[in-house]
Amino acid sequence: SAVISQKPSRDICQRGTSLTIQCQVDSQVTMMFWYRQQPGQSLTLIATANQGSEATYESGFVIDKFPISRPNLTFSTLTVSNMSPEDSSIYLCSVQEPSNVLTFGAGSRLTVL
Amino acid sequence: DAKTTQPNSMESNEEEPVHLPCNHSTISGTDYIHWYRQLPSQGPEYVIHGLTSNVNNRMASLAIAEDRKSSTLILHRATLRDAAVYYCILRPAGGTSYGKLTFGQGTILTVHP
To answer: Where are the beta strands (DSSP E) in chain B?
Structure first.
C-alpha cells in the first residue's frame, strides 16, 4: 500500500494565523482526500483534492477557509486559514489505492491558542 | 448516505474471539461494507470489506447477513494491539460519492490482558 508522509506532525499556532499541511505519497494516486478529526470525535471529510483542478468541498467546508492544492499525483497541501481555537483538530490526508481501499496518513495535530 | 449503527464500546480478553456488530438497515444494493480501525494516535487503517459474501483476510473475517442489513467483524484471537476504534462504513460503488468514506462514531474495543 501507499506510504503517506504528512508534515507537520503537530503544531501549535496563534489565533488568526494560517498553517499549511503537506501530504506526500510515495506513488502516483488519482484520488486524494483531506479529513478532519476534532477532539474526541470521528473523522469528517473536508474535500477531495483533484489534480489540476479545484478541490471538491463537502458541505460546511469552503475554499477560503481550507484552500487545497494538488499540483501533481503524489502531493497535496491543505491550508487552514485565519485559525481559531475551534480549528484545533487532527487533519488527515488519505489516498485511494488501486484496490479501492483508502490509506491514511498519521495525521497533523493542530492546536490553536 | 446510508448510515450504520455500532455499539459505543466493547470489551474482550486477550486471545479470545471478538465479534463487532454493525447494523445498516438502509444499505443499498451497490454499497460495499467496509471496516477500518484507528489505533491510538494513528490514522485509520483498512481492515476488510465485502459486498454479499463472507470475507476472510489475515486480519479478520467479515460475516454479512443474507439480507445485508447487518454485518459482523470477527477478530479470531484478540491481542492488546487490536485495541482501537472500529468503524463500519458503507461505501457506494459509484456515483458522486465514490471514493468517500463517511465515518460514524465507531466502536471502542478494549482488550484486557
So the answer is: 9-13, 18-23, 31-38, 45-50, 55-56, 61-64, 70-75, 84-92, 107-112
Write the pLDDT tens digit of every residue in B44-71. 999 999 999 999 999 999 999 999 999 9
Rounded to the nearest angstrom, the minimum Cα separation between A24 and chain B is 15
The CA distances from residue A44 to A17, A20, A48, A93, B46, in Å, are: 23, 19, 12, 12, 17
CA-based nearest residue in chain A for residue B92: A100
Q: Is B100 on the interface with A (CB under 8 A)?
A: yes
Residues in chain A: 113
Q: Along chain A (113 residues), what's the average pLDDT of each consecutive run of 10 residues? A: 95 97 95 94 93 90 97 96 97 90 95 97
Question: Which of A4, A31, A35 is facing B99, going by the closest CB pair?
Answer: A31
